[in-house]
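In the design runs reported in the main text, the only information available to the sequence generator was the tokenized backbone. The following block is the verbatim input for one such run; it is reproduced so that readers can re-run the procedure and compare outputs position by position.
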């Protein structure tokens, strides 16, 4: 059963990889073309904020999703897949932290209050839980590593908690797209204009990209051992 699922995972992952590329392209087009670009320092503070959706989607969501898929789909030795899984999640976490910081930087330099919305509250929770999950996985499954019994007992909870955090990240990203688009429309952006459609399609692609691999992992997690 485990072998059959592993064989199926690789070709089916091509579909979600296409969605990942589409999501990355859409969020870059939105922020580079419609929103004016990206900047860490600028008199136009909106360019600083633009880093936030780009880094959160490409970093935390897409690369974080690739970390999950890689452990299920790559036809490599378990030890190699474990390292890839760990490194990709580390990259996702680092980019996510920078993305969160960019939002705070934008707010502080624009004299806008921080942490006033549900999106921001959930975002802090997601990045904190993501960090806890990574540290726990590193200590138990990589270095110094728990005993065989601890790893065996921890694995189902590690998978379940990881899926929970990831689904929470999806929900938070979706709220973020909705919140930003609402602000833009209240500021005069056409509700049926090309930018509004692009943002909504980006959110839809994000949900589609995230749902299939998450459901696949939930289906066969009992067939996978670290």
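Verbatim output:
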């Amino acid at each position: 059963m485990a072998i059959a699922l592993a064989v199926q995972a690789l070709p089916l992952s091509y579909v979600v990889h296409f969605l990942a590329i589409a999501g990355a392209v859409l969020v870059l087009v939105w922020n580079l073309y419609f929103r004016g670009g990206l900047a860490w320092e600028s008199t136009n503070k909106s360019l600083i904020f633009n880093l936030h959706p780009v880094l959160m989607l490409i970093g935390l969501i897409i690369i974080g999703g690739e970390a999950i898929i890689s452990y299920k789909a790559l036809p490599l030795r378990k030890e190699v897949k474990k390292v890839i899984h760990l490194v990709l999640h580390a990259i996702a976490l680092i980019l996510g932290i920078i993305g969160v910081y960019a939002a705070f930087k934008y707010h502080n330099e624009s004299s806008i209050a921080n942490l006033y919305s549900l999106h921001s509250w959930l975002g802090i929770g997601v990045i904190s839980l993501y960090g806890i999950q990574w540290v726990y996985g590193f200590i138990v499954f990589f270095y110094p590593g728990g005993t065989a019994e601890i790893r065996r007992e921890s694995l189902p909870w590690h998978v379940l908690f990881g899926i929970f955090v990831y689904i929470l990240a999806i929900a938070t990203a979706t709220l973020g797209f909705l919140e930003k688009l609402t602000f833009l429309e209240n500021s005069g952006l056409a509700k049926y204009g090309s930018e509004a459609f692009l943002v909504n399609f980006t959110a839809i692609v994000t949900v589609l990209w995230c749902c299939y691999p998450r459901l696949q992992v939930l289906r066969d997690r009992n067939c996978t051992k670290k």
